[in-house]
Each structure stands twice: as C-alpha cells, then as structure tokens.
Design goal:
The structure holds 3 protein chains of 3 kinds. By secondary structure, chain A is α+β, with helices and mostly antiparallel strands. In chain A, 24% of the residues lie in helices and 33% in strands. Chain A has 10 helices and 20 strands. Chain C has a single domain, classed as MetI-like (MetI-like fold). The radius of gyration of chain C is 23 Å and the shape is globular. The chains are: A alpha+beta, B mainly alpha, C mainly alpha. The interface between B and C is large, with 104 and 112 residues.
Chain lengths: 368, 282, 282
C-alpha cells in the first residue's frame, strides 16, 4: 500500500529537516481595494498535516490558491525546499489540489481521471496503469474504474479527486474544504480516513476548513486565519489550552472571557479575585467551561490556589454525557460551566476553578 | 477567471484577440460601408467616397411607396406579435407543465420553423391558402409570420419558465388563489421580462422577414419586399439610406432586448436557449 | 397540480394552430409532390412519382443540390473557424468586457439579412467599394470579376450571416464548462494548450455540432444570397424552388424538391442530435 511515496517515509519525522517543505514569506494579496491577505508568513514541515482554519472571508482559500498557483500574491514569496515556487505556473509545481467540488472531468472515466496527470507527463503506459490501480485501491474505489463521474456519489467523487491528486506523488497536497459537501456522518468517517491516509502516504497535507472541530481532529498543527492575518499557529492541544488571543479562544471550542484589573499582585474580575504575578493594568482571561468545577462537598473549605464562588443557574443545556450551564454571579458576571450531566441540581451552586486554568489572552482588535 | 500567467498563455491570448478584431471587423465592415455610402453623392460604389450629401435621405423621405410599405410592415409585425404570443405562451406552458399524447411531435413541430429554411414554411402555407381558396394579402402574411415566429415566443417563454420558482405558485395556491388567479397574479408577472423580450424579438424579425413573405404577398408590400423589388430594378443609394435607418432601429431594439434579458438572468442562458431548443432531444 | 380546464386552455389552442398552419401545410407539401401541373397551369390531383423521377433523371436538380451542399459545407467550415476562437476568447480571455463583446456579436445577427446581403453586393461589384479601393491603391488595374456573381460571393456573404449563428452554441457550451476543471487540469500538470485539447475542446463538442448544424442547414436552404450575389454559377437549390413557384410555375415539382430538402434537414438534425447526446457528459 505504501509503494506510493518511498521518499516521504524518510520525511515522516516532522521538522527534523533543516529546510521546511514550504516556506511562505510575507505574502499579501488584495482584490481591488479589498485586502484579503496581509503579510502572511508560515512554514510547513515535511509530512505534516497542517490545517488552515478560518471563517469565510478570512482569506484561507485565497492562501491555498496562491500556493497552488491559481492566484498570484501581490507581494512576498513562496519557497519549496529552498527554491522559488511562486514564479512557476501551476502546471509546473510539485503541488496537487483536491478541489472543493472535486472538479472531476465529466468526459473521462474514473480511471482516466486518475491517470490524467500521468498521461500529461507522458509516462509509459504500463507505469500509468499500475499507478492508477494502486491509487484506486488506496481509496477503495477499484470497482468503479470504468464508471463516469456523473454516476458515482459525492463521497465517492471525493475519493477519486484524492486519488487523482495523490497518484502524481506531489511534494505537497492541498485540500480546499473537501469535506464540506458531505453529510455529517460521512464527513466524520472521511476525516478519519483522510488522516490515516496521510500517515500512510507520508506527504504533507495542507487542509483548509472553517470547521474547528474538523481541524482539531485531523491536524498536527492549526494555522488560524482571521481577516487576512494569522492569529495563531500551533498544535491543536496548544491552541486549545493556551489560546493567544480572545478570538482564538472563542473560535476554538467554547470559552469564558473574563475582563479584569491587576493591582498590586491581585487580579480582580468582578467579584472574583486571586493573586497573580502580573504588572498592574487591565487583563483578559480565557477560562474553558470544563475547567469550572461544581463543588460537591463543602467539607474542608477551598483548597489552596482555588477560586471559589457562588452563582445562580440561569439555563441548563443537556448534551448527552455533559451539561452546559449558564450561571450568573452576584455581581452579574455570567459564565458557562461544563459539567457531568446530572438529573437534579439546585438553583444555586458553589463553583470553583484553578487560577492556572485562566489563560491570559490578547485582545483581538478590529481590522480595517 | 484569470488564466495563470505563462508564456504560452499570454501568446495565445494575443493571437486570440487579433482574431477577435478580425472577426468583428468582418461582421461590421459591410454595415459601416453601407452607412458611409448613404451619404456619398456619387453613388453606392467607388472608392473613396466623395460629395457628402443628404440627398439620398431627402429622396427617401419623399418616397411614398417606401413609407407605405413601412406602415404595412409595422401593422404586420404587431399582428404577428399578437398571434405568436397568444399561441406561443400557452405552448411554452404546455411544454413545461402538461403531459399529453403527441407532446414530442408538438414540440418538434413548433420549433421546426426556426431551423427550416423559411421558404418551406412559406410555400407550404401558400399551398394551404390556395387549397382553401384564400386570397393573398397582408392577412396571409400576418398568418405566415405569426406561425413562423411562434417558435420564438415559445423558446423565450419556456426559458423564462425554467427560472420561475414553482414554490411561488404553490404559495399562491396555498394562500387561497385558484389556478386562474395564480396564473394572472403570479405566473404572468414573473414571465413579464420573457414576454417583453419575446415581443421585441418577434417584432424585429417580422419587420425583416422575407422568405415567408415572398410567397404570401398580395398587392401590398412589406418593407423588405419593397426594397427587394427595387433591387431588381437597380441599386440606388436611397437603398443605402433606408438600410442605415433599418440598422439603427434594429440596433436599438436588440440592445433593449439584451438589457431586459440581463436583468432577468445570466448571459449563458440566452445563448443556450437560442440554440438549444431546436437542437434538443427528447 | 393543474386543473383540467387550465391544461386544456394551454394545450388546445396552440395544438390547433400548429395543426392547421403547420401540420396541414406540410401534409399538403407531401401531397403536392405527387401531383402534377397541366398545360393550362392548373394543379392536377393525380398521384404519381413523376416529379421524383424527374428530380433524379434531370441533371440540373441533383447538380444544384450538390453545389448547394458544397457551398453550405464551406460556409460551415469558415463559420466554425471564425466563430470558435471568437467564442473561446470571449469565454476565457475577455474578462469584464465579455458582456460588451457578446452584445457586439449578436447585434449583426438580428440586423436585417437583406441589408447585410445588399451591403456585400455594393462592396463586391466591379464598381463596388472593394474593387475601386484596390484600383485606387494601385493593387489591381482592372476590377476583379470573380468577386460578385459567383459562388465565392455567396460563400462570403453566407459566412458573414451565419458566423454569429455558429458562435452562439459554441459560446454557450464553453460557458458551461466549470472553471475549476481548467484549474484542475493545470494543477495536474497540463499546460494551457494541453488543457484546451484534453478538457475544453471535448466538452465544447456539443456546441460545435449545434453550430455546424445551424450554419449548414440554414445556408443550404438560403435563397436570398444566391439571388442577389450568386449569378448563374451561384444558383442554389432554393432558387430553383422559388422559380418553380413563380415564373416556371410547377408547384408539384417545387413541392417535391422542398419535401426532399425537408427530409434532408430533418435527417441532419436527427444525426446532429444523436451525436450531441453521445458527446454530452451531463
């Protein structure tokens, strides 16, 4: 199965090669007066699964298209393994794309579609046949080799699009929201399959999506893009537990944003306070709802280094194994709390959290 | 979509734009020549044109026969428009919504005059009138144009129906209107642009129609036949003058038609409808 | 969903009209082709195959038919050669001027045929614009005779008339090609030329077939251009039909020829449709 890419087996250990696979330096792009990408710099390592995550209008698709070669950046450059990529037209880049709506050629059969890039490169017929067979087997679509795209389902078309791109053994695979047209169950299934396929094949994948759950599930690293700029580039765990900005904290998962003021080593957020080693001034915290615990027994009082408070439950949302509570403190501060589902709950609760779970984040300014 | 930059891409674009210039030149040069020479004192030919004059236009405006034929043509065009729409709109609706025996044959028949040489439609109608002992006159020309141009009405309205959101009609029925009320209050207003576009097109085509009219003409001439008659006798720049005027009017009519269609739907659809209808399979 | 009255109202009137003014005339065409004309110029309703025998045995008819088909074939080829690159340019390279250029192409389409044919007549004649221009710049000493009253003039004029007809369906099919297919092709390593040859052209074949059919069928049945510009060597089959319904007064023979033309056209349409279906990938 892994006869596809022998050279990438070597590159499977991430970030151990001196030269990154792809280096984006200060790329900017505007459409007319509208700046879509401002000063993007990013590196992609061999064999990594990077997701470019963002809302619509964030510029993620534009960035992908610039890497693929369908748009050119207004400024900046892109290097692949040290050499300029952005000066090459798309058909000379060792990069292949899986398009959002698959873009399969309607007049060719499935196997002709998959073999297209190989025929264009004028490879010998036998080699083409072998590689196409392998590619189809890899995406489990061998039975459909002679079908036309119009006759197969969306999910199946997506696999063919994948095979068609991978059969060319690109250095980098770009995926433009390939799962967005699939229904929820199929989507989850494909997420798992794509991830294991990437591991198997060892090629770097750059995956674009607006779905943060998808990004978390699949990626080695996430690059969060907002209004043309990178908010944060980090692994899913890191981006979740240590978001850099308010936007990141809110975009990925749920969070509580607490505004506070530090004076003489103590931060005060409404009626809550705890000691911190920060200079005086305003501060913004991200506190994940699951980090706020319901105090079970009052015996022994609050432990050391715990912030404890009372709040009134305003709203309960049942999520199966957990509940999301909306609570309100005496001073009006509203928080979301995620806790294990329970049948009965008093209206007033004693809650607590550890100060280290309150992560300071930067403000996210409005951008022009 | 921007094609990516590359050597071959740009070269191709250069060659293609030259080709486009040549084709546009080929399409417009004769018409421009015609207009230029309508001001030429020395007649229709000869290069270079000299003696700029308005004489030919003056002659044209004094020419009663021409204006009578213009009036005839206008009358015929309006009448033909009426017939084509009166039968073409229901035909489009029938093709879109109803199923009846002989539907395929009906569709092909209705669209046939679009692709068939006009003389066949003309002479077969001539045979009809002869067998029915109907004297040839402007009326027979009206019947001929109306029949030939039903296909235009049907094609345009049919295309408009595809754009119509069925949910609107269903909503109307749901709110208590019956089929007739729905037809007049919802369907027709939505088809307004298609109908106006069709009317404009039919009018223009009727004004220019020769092949069918040729066979069905009685004592009164339509404009094209009047011009035709003069051509047999010899060319005069007066013909250039009337041709220039015809060109201006056609230009205005078509630009209005196009703008109407643009406000309704996309460009591709027009090109597609204009030709897909007769070429469509079952 | 629609009531029976509604359905009757939209199907019956058009059906009736089409039956009376299309079906019956074509049936008459059929009948007439088997009848004959007497010495006193009345139509004799006796059934025989004489007309058809005459068509086969008297050379001029088949000769003219083949000449007409040859002219139509040349017109078709030239129209495609002019129309396809133009359509491609508009679809892929024209950017935001696409709309304007499209209008420019369809305007000549609806400007009077007679006007345009007449324009060529004034240009190509021995005293016409082209000849006097060539003499004026001393490229030629004497007028070029072949320009007018020849098959050349007919082919030129008909190409002028029918290039926009060929353009339209080609443009429509090119516009229907999703742009992401072009990007996908580039992505997979194909240069712009390879992309055209492997992806764009195959997907545009239905449009090319439709355009070719239009150009061929319409020019085959044309009678105006040959009459104005063809001279004796440029006579086409429709001119024979027209004279048989005019001075030569033999309606049955004319009907027989027309019926053959009708069948030929229907056959070509059918062929074209099945080929289009085969090449359509929806």
């Amino acid at each position: 199965m892994s006869t596809m890419t022998s050279e990438s087996e070597v590159g499977k250990e991430k970030r151990d090669t001196a030269t990154p696979l792809l280096a984006v330096h200060n790329v900017a792009k505007s459409f007319g007066k509208n700046p879509v990408l401002r000063d993007i710099s990013l590196e992609i390592a061999q064999g990594e699964f990077l997701t470019i995550l963002g809302e619509s209008g964030s510029g993620k698709t534009t960035l992908l298209r610039i890497i693929a070669g369908f748009e050119s950046a207004d400024s900046g450059e892109i290097l692949m393994e040290g050499e300029r990529l952005d000066i090459l037209p798309p058909y000379r880049r060792r990069v292949n794309t899986v398009f959002q709506h698959y873009a399969l050629f309607p007049h060719l059969t499935v196997e002709e579609n998959v073999g297209y890039g190989l025929r264009v490169a004028k490879l010998p017929k036998d080699e083409i046949t072998t590689r196409v067979e392998q590619a189809l087997a890899m995406v489990k679509m061998s039975a459909y080799a002679k079908s036309k795209p119009a006759k197969i389902s969306g999910g199946q078309q997506q696999r063919i699009a994948l095979a068609r791109a991978l059969v060319n053994r690109p250095r980098l695979l770009l995926l433009d929201e390939p799962l967005s047209a699939l229904d929820a169950n199929l989507r989850r299934q494909m997420q798992v399959e794509l991830k294991s396929l990437q591991r198997e094949v060892g090629i770097a994948f750059v995956f674009v999506t607006h779905d943060q759950e998808e990004a978390m599930v699949m990626s080695d690293r996430i690059a969060l893009l907002r209004m043309g700029e990178l908010e944060q580039v980090a692994s899913p765990r890191e981006i979740y537990s240590r978001p850099a900005t308010a936007y990141t904290a809110q975009f990925i998962g749920h969070t509580n944003l607490l505004r506070g003021e530090v004076k003489a080593g103590v931060v005060r957020c409404g009626s809550l306070d705890w000691p911190v080693g920060l200079p005086d001034g305003p501060v913004l915290y991200s506190l994940r709802p699951e980090k706020v615990r319901v105090v079970k027994s009052m015996v022994g009082g609050p432990g050391v280094n715990v912030v404890r408070f009372r709040a009134h439950v305003r709203h309960r949302a049942f999520h199966g194994s957990t509940e999301l509570l909306r609570v309100e403190c005496v001073d009006g501060l509203k928080l979301s709390v995620r806790t294990a589902a329970s049948e009965q709950r008093p209206d007033d609760l004693e809650l607590e959290f550890s100060p280290e779970d309150a992560v300071p984040v930067r403000e996210s300014e409005e951008r022009a | 979509m921007e094609l990516p930059m590359s050597g071959t891409g740009r070269d191709k674009s250069g060659w293609l734009s030259w080709h486009a210039v040549i084709v546009f030149g080929f399409l417009y040069l004769p018409i421009v020549t015609l207009i230029v020479y309508s001001f030429n004192g020395s007649g229709v030919g000869g290069f270079p044109p000299r003696n700029l004059t308005l004489d030919w236009y003056r002659m044209l405006f004094a020419d009663d026969a021409i204006w009578t034929s213009v009036l005839n043509s206008v009358l015929v065009a309006f009448a033909a428009m009426g017939i084509s729409l009166a039968f073409g709109i229901p035909a489009a609706l029938a093709l879109d919504r109803a199923n009846f025996p002989g539907k395929t044959l009906f569709r092909r028949l209705v669209l046939l005059p679009l692709i068939l040489p006009g003389i066949i439609t003309g002479l077969s109608l001539l045979m009809l009138f002869r067998e029915a002992d109907v004297k040839l006159s402007l009326l027979t020309i009206v019947l001929g144009h109306g029949t030939a141009l039903i296909s235009v009405a049907t094609t345009e309205v049919f295309a408009g129906l595809q754009k119509l959101d069925r949910a609107q009609e269903e909503a109307s029925l749901d709110l208590g209107a019956n089929y007739w009320q729905t037809f007049w209050r919802v369907t027709i207003p939505n088809l307004r642009l298609s109908i106006i576009g069709a009317a404009l097109l039919i009018f223009t085509l009727s004004m220019d129609e020769i092949a069918v009219s040729f066979f069905l003409i009685g004592r009164d001439n339509t404009l094209p036949l009047e011009i035709w008659g003069r051509l047999r006798r010899g060319i005069t720049p007066e013909i250039n003058a009337i041709s220039s005027i015809i060109f201006i009017f056609s230009l205005i009519a078509i630009v209005i038609w196009y703008r109407l269609r643009m406000s309704a739907d996309g460009k591709t659809e027009i090109a597609a409808e204009l030709v897909e209808a007769p070429a469509q399979g079952d | 969903m629609f009531s029976r009255a509604y359905r009757a109202a939209i199907t019956v009137p058009p059906l009736l009209w089409v039956a009376i003014f299309l079906l019956v005339p074509y049936a008459l065409l059929f009948c007439y082709s088997f009848w004959s004309v007497s010495a006193t110029q009345t139509i004799v309703h006796s059934w025989s195959l004489d007309n058809y025998r005459e068509l086969i045995h008297v050379h001029v008819y088949l000769q003219t038919l083949f000449r007409s088909m040859w002219i139509a074939a040349r017109v078709t080829v030239f129209s495609l050669l002019l129309g396809y690159p133009l359509a491609y340019y508009l679809s892929f390279h024209a950017g935001n001027r696409k709309d304007l250029f499209y209008q420019l192409v369809i305007i000549p389409l609806w400007v009077s045929y007679l006007v345009r044919a007449y324009a060529w007549k004034t240009i190509l004649g021995s005293d016409g614009v082209l000849n006097t221009l060539l003499q004026y710049v001393h490229l030629t000493k004497h007028p070029l005779e072949f320009l007018l009253y020849s098959p050349f003039a007919v082919v030129l004029t008909l190409t002028h008339i029918y290039t926009p007809f060929a353009f339209l369906p080609i443009y429509a099919s090119l516009e229907h090609i999703p742009r992401n297919l072009v990007e996908a092709s580039h992505d997979l390593g194909a240069s712009p030329f390879q992309t055209f040859w492997r992806v764009i052209f195959p997907l545009s074949i239905p449009g090319v077939l439709a355009g070719a059919t239009f150009a061929f069928v319409l020019s085959l049945g044309d009678f105006l251009a040959p009459l104005l510009l063809g001279g004796p060597s440029g006579i086409m089959i429709s001119n024979i039909v027209v004279s048989l319904f005019g001075a030569a007064y033999n309606w049955p023979l004319g009907a027989a020829i027309s019926l053959c033309m009708l069948l030929l056209v229907l056959g070509l349409l059918f062929l074209s449709e099945s080929l289009e279906k085969k090449w359509s990938f929806r």
